[in-house]
Design goal:
Helices cover about 75% and strands about 0% of the residues. The chain is built from ten helices and no strands.
Length: about 260
Amino acid sequence: VKTRIQVSTEYGKMGMGGTAAHVVKNEGISGLWKGVNAAWLREASYTSLRLGLYEPIKVAFGATGSDATFAKKFLAGSAAGALGSLAGNPFDVLKTKLMTSGGKEMPSMMKTAMELYGNQGVQGFYRGIDSNIARAMVLNGTKMGVYDQSKGYVVQLTGLPKKSLGTQFLSAVTAGFFMTCTVAPFDMIRTRLMNQPADAKIYNNAIDCMIKIATNEGPLTFWRGFLPIWSRFAPTTTLQLVIFEQLRGIMGMKSL
Protein backbone atom coordinates (compact mmCIF):
# COMPACT_ATOMS: atom_id res chain seq x y z
CA VAL A 1 0.00 0.00 0.00
CA LYS A 2 2.80 2.42 0.94
CA THR A 3 4.73 1.70 -2.25
CA ARG A 4 1.73 2.22 -4.53
CA ILE A 5 0.84 5.51 -2.86
CA GLN A 6 4.39 6.71 -3.43
CA VAL A 7 4.58 5.83 -7.14
CA SER A 8 1.09 6.92 -8.20
CA THR A 9 -0.84 10.14 -7.66
CA GLU A 10 -4.01 8.13 -8.27
CA TYR A 11 -3.32 5.91 -5.27
CA GLY A 12 -2.11 8.95 -3.36
CA LYS A 13 -5.57 10.51 -3.68
CA MET A 14 -7.21 7.29 -2.46
CA GLY A 15 -5.22 7.26 0.76
CA MET A 16 -4.20 4.19 2.74
CA GLY A 17 -7.68 2.72 3.21
CA GLY A 18 -8.80 3.42 -0.35
CA THR A 19 -5.64 1.94 -1.84
CA ALA A 20 -5.93 -1.21 0.27
CA ALA A 21 -9.59 -1.62 -0.72
CA HIS A 22 -8.77 -1.05 -4.42
CA VAL A 23 -6.00 -3.68 -4.35
CA VAL A 24 -8.22 -6.25 -2.61
CA LYS A 25 -11.11 -5.61 -5.02
CA ASN A 26 -9.04 -5.83 -8.21
CA GLU A 27 -6.26 -8.23 -7.25
CA GLY A 28 -7.63 -10.21 -4.33
CA ILE A 29 -6.46 -10.26 -0.72
CA SER A 30 -3.19 -11.89 -1.82
CA GLY A 31 -2.39 -8.67 -3.70
CA LEU A 32 -1.45 -7.10 -0.36
CA TRP A 33 1.34 -9.67 -0.03
CA LYS A 34 2.93 -9.20 -3.44
CA GLY A 35 6.70 -9.11 -3.13
CA VAL A 36 6.75 -10.73 0.31
CA ASN A 37 9.38 -13.26 -0.83
CA ALA A 38 11.75 -10.48 -1.92
CA ALA A 39 10.91 -8.61 1.31
CA TRP A 40 12.01 -11.64 3.37
CA LEU A 41 15.34 -11.80 1.54
CA ARG A 42 15.80 -8.06 1.97
CA GLU A 43 15.23 -8.27 5.72
CA ALA A 44 17.53 -11.30 6.03
CA SER A 45 20.40 -9.34 4.48
CA TYR A 46 19.81 -5.64 5.15
CA THR A 47 18.20 -5.74 8.59
CA SER A 48 20.54 -8.41 9.97
CA LEU A 49 23.56 -6.28 9.10
CA ARG A 50 22.21 -2.90 10.21
CA LEU A 51 21.20 -4.26 13.63
CA GLY A 52 24.15 -6.59 14.13
CA LEU A 53 26.83 -4.10 13.10
CA TYR A 54 25.56 -1.24 15.27
CA GLU A 55 27.32 -2.22 18.51
CA PRO A 56 30.76 -3.04 17.02
CA ILE A 57 30.68 0.22 15.04
CA LYS A 58 29.54 2.09 18.15
CA VAL A 59 32.57 0.68 19.97
CA ALA A 60 34.83 1.74 17.08
CA PHE A 61 33.37 5.27 17.25
CA GLY A 62 33.88 5.47 21.01
CA ALA A 63 30.15 5.80 21.72
CA THR A 64 29.75 3.16 24.43
CA GLY A 65 30.05 5.28 27.58
CA SER A 66 27.16 6.85 29.47
CA ASP A 67 28.40 10.25 28.30
CA ALA A 68 28.37 9.26 24.60
CA THR A 69 26.71 11.93 22.47
CA PHE A 70 23.64 11.36 20.30
CA ALA A 71 25.72 12.40 17.26
CA LYS A 72 28.12 9.49 17.74
CA LYS A 73 25.26 7.03 18.16
CA PHE A 74 23.59 8.43 15.05
CA LEU A 75 26.80 8.07 13.04
CA ALA A 76 27.28 4.49 14.24
CA GLY A 77 23.73 3.62 13.19
CA SER A 78 24.22 5.39 9.86
CA ALA A 79 27.39 3.44 9.07
CA ALA A 80 25.68 0.13 9.90
CA GLY A 81 22.71 1.11 7.74
CA ALA A 82 24.91 2.00 4.76
CA LEU A 83 26.68 -1.36 4.86
CA GLY A 84 23.38 -3.21 5.19
CA SER A 85 21.84 -1.39 2.22
CA LEU A 86 24.67 -2.53 -0.06
CA ALA A 87 23.73 -6.14 0.63
CA GLY A 88 19.96 -5.59 0.49
CA ASN A 89 19.60 -3.32 -2.55
CA PRO A 90 19.02 -6.08 -5.16
CA PHE A 91 16.14 -7.48 -3.12
CA ASP A 92 14.82 -3.96 -2.53
CA VAL A 93 14.60 -3.37 -6.27
CA LEU A 94 12.78 -6.68 -6.83
CA LYS A 95 10.44 -6.05 -3.89
CA THR A 96 9.44 -2.64 -5.25
CA LYS A 97 8.77 -3.97 -8.76
CA LEU A 98 6.75 -6.94 -7.45
CA MET A 99 4.65 -4.76 -5.14
CA THR A 100 3.66 -2.39 -7.95
CA SER A 101 2.72 -5.10 -10.45
CA GLY A 102 -0.99 -5.20 -11.33
CA GLY A 103 -3.32 -8.14 -11.97
CA LYS A 104 -4.53 -11.02 -9.83
CA GLU A 105 -1.64 -13.32 -10.71
CA MET A 106 1.18 -13.31 -8.16
CA PRO A 107 4.32 -12.06 -9.93
CA SER A 108 7.37 -14.33 -10.10
CA MET A 109 10.48 -13.01 -8.39
CA MET A 110 12.76 -15.11 -10.62
CA LYS A 111 11.04 -13.96 -13.80
CA THR A 112 11.24 -10.33 -12.70
CA ALA A 113 14.92 -10.74 -11.82
CA MET A 114 15.73 -12.35 -15.19
CA GLU A 115 13.85 -9.62 -17.06
CA LEU A 116 15.70 -6.92 -15.15
CA TYR A 117 19.06 -8.60 -15.73
CA GLY A 118 18.30 -9.09 -19.43
CA ASN A 119 17.52 -5.40 -19.92
CA GLN A 120 20.06 -3.76 -17.61
CA GLY A 121 22.53 -6.34 -16.40
CA VAL A 122 23.83 -6.45 -12.84
CA GLN A 123 23.61 -2.67 -12.52
CA GLY A 124 19.82 -2.96 -12.76
CA PHE A 125 19.81 -4.53 -9.29
CA TYR A 126 21.60 -1.49 -7.93
CA ARG A 127 19.10 1.05 -9.21
CA GLY A 128 18.62 3.79 -6.67
CA ILE A 129 21.65 2.66 -4.65
CA ASP A 130 22.59 6.28 -3.89
CA SER A 131 19.18 7.13 -2.46
CA ASN A 132 18.93 3.74 -0.75
CA ILE A 133 22.22 4.25 1.08
CA ALA A 134 21.14 7.78 2.07
CA ARG A 135 17.79 6.41 3.27
CA ALA A 136 19.45 3.57 5.18
CA MET A 137 21.86 5.95 6.87
CA VAL A 138 19.09 8.32 7.97
CA LEU A 139 16.78 5.45 8.93
CA ASN A 140 19.25 3.42 10.94
CA GLY A 141 20.96 6.48 12.38
CA THR A 142 17.59 7.73 13.63
CA LYS A 143 16.39 4.30 14.71
CA MET A 144 19.42 3.23 16.71
CA GLY A 145 20.44 6.72 17.86
CA VAL A 146 16.97 7.70 19.10
CA TYR A 147 16.38 4.25 20.61
CA ASP A 148 19.70 4.27 22.43
CA GLN A 149 19.25 7.86 23.64
CA SER A 150 15.59 7.36 24.58
CA LYS A 151 16.44 4.51 26.91
CA GLY A 152 18.37 6.93 29.11
CA TYR A 153 15.42 9.33 29.24
CA VAL A 154 12.92 6.54 29.95
CA VAL A 155 15.07 5.28 32.83
CA GLN A 156 15.29 8.82 34.28
CA LEU A 157 11.57 9.53 33.95
CA THR A 158 10.13 6.15 34.99
CA GLY A 159 12.81 4.59 37.17
CA LEU A 160 12.59 1.38 35.15
CA PRO A 161 15.81 -0.63 34.67
CA LYS A 162 17.56 -0.07 31.36
CA LYS A 163 17.19 -3.71 30.36
CA SER A 164 13.49 -3.98 31.27
CA LEU A 165 10.91 -4.79 28.61
CA GLY A 166 9.00 -1.58 29.41
CA THR A 167 12.07 0.59 28.77
CA GLN A 168 12.77 -1.21 25.50
CA PHE A 169 9.15 -0.91 24.34
CA LEU A 170 8.79 2.82 25.07
CA SER A 171 12.15 3.61 23.49
CA ALA A 172 11.35 1.57 20.38
CA VAL A 173 7.97 3.29 19.90
CA THR A 174 9.69 6.69 20.13
CA ALA A 175 12.31 5.63 17.58
CA GLY A 176 9.60 4.42 15.18
CA PHE A 177 7.88 7.81 15.10
CA PHE A 178 11.04 9.85 14.51
CA MET A 179 12.16 7.37 11.85
CA THR A 180 9.00 8.06 9.85
CA CYS A 181 9.57 11.83 10.02
CA THR A 182 13.16 11.68 8.79
CA VAL A 183 12.97 8.76 6.35
CA ALA A 184 9.79 9.55 4.35
CA PRO A 185 11.47 11.84 1.75
CA PHE A 186 14.31 9.37 1.14
CA ASP A 187 11.82 6.52 0.94
CA MET A 188 9.84 8.38 -1.74
CA ILE A 189 12.92 9.04 -3.87
CA ARG A 190 14.18 5.47 -3.52
CA THR A 191 10.80 4.00 -4.47
CA ARG A 192 10.52 6.19 -7.57
CA LEU A 193 14.04 5.28 -8.72
CA MET A 194 13.54 1.56 -8.19
CA ASN A 195 10.14 1.48 -9.86
CA GLN A 196 11.32 2.88 -13.19
CA PRO A 197 10.48 0.65 -16.21
CA ALA A 198 13.07 -2.06 -16.89
CA ASP A 199 13.71 -0.64 -20.38
CA ALA A 200 13.57 3.08 -19.58
CA LYS A 201 15.07 5.73 -17.32
CA ILE A 202 12.84 8.51 -15.99
CA TYR A 203 15.27 9.84 -13.39
CA ASN A 204 19.05 10.11 -13.80
CA ASN A 205 19.90 9.91 -10.10
CA ALA A 206 18.58 10.75 -6.63
CA ILE A 207 19.15 14.51 -7.01
CA ASP A 208 17.39 14.56 -10.39
CA CYS A 209 14.49 12.59 -8.91
CA MET A 210 14.22 14.95 -5.92
CA ILE A 211 14.17 18.04 -8.14
CA LYS A 212 11.55 16.59 -10.51
CA ILE A 213 9.25 15.52 -7.67
CA ALA A 214 9.54 18.89 -5.91
CA THR A 215 9.03 20.82 -9.17
CA ASN A 216 6.21 18.76 -10.69
CA GLU A 217 4.32 17.59 -7.59
CA GLY A 218 5.32 19.91 -4.76
CA PRO A 219 7.56 19.46 -1.67
CA LEU A 220 4.83 17.86 0.45
CA THR A 221 4.86 14.91 -1.96
CA PHE A 222 7.97 13.68 -0.16
CA TRP A 223 5.77 12.89 2.84
CA ARG A 224 3.00 11.26 0.80
CA GLY A 225 2.26 7.91 2.41
CA PHE A 226 3.33 9.11 5.89
CA LEU A 227 0.53 7.20 7.64
CA PRO A 228 1.19 3.82 5.97
CA ILE A 229 4.94 4.27 6.51
CA TRP A 230 4.34 4.95 10.21
CA SER A 231 1.86 2.06 10.37
CA ARG A 232 4.65 -0.14 9.06
CA PHE A 233 7.50 1.31 11.12
CA ALA A 234 5.67 1.40 14.46
CA PRO A 235 5.13 -2.37 14.86
CA THR A 236 8.24 -3.55 12.97
CA THR A 237 10.62 -1.23 14.80
CA THR A 238 9.15 -2.13 18.17
CA LEU A 239 9.23 -5.88 17.49
CA GLN A 240 12.69 -5.81 15.93
CA LEU A 241 14.33 -3.88 18.75
CA VAL A 242 12.54 -5.64 21.60
CA ILE A 243 13.23 -9.12 20.16
CA PHE A 244 16.82 -8.09 19.37
CA GLU A 245 17.36 -6.98 22.96
CA GLN A 246 15.71 -10.10 24.39
CA LEU A 247 17.91 -12.35 22.23
CA ARG A 248 20.99 -10.43 23.39
CA GLY A 249 19.95 -11.14 26.99
CA ILE A 250 19.43 -14.85 26.27
CA MET A 251 22.92 -15.03 24.74
CA GLY A 252 24.46 -13.34 27.75
CA MET A 253 25.07 -10.00 26.04
CA LYS A 254 24.40 -6.72 27.79
CA SER A 255 21.60 -4.36 26.78
CA LEU A 256 22.40 -1.65 24.22
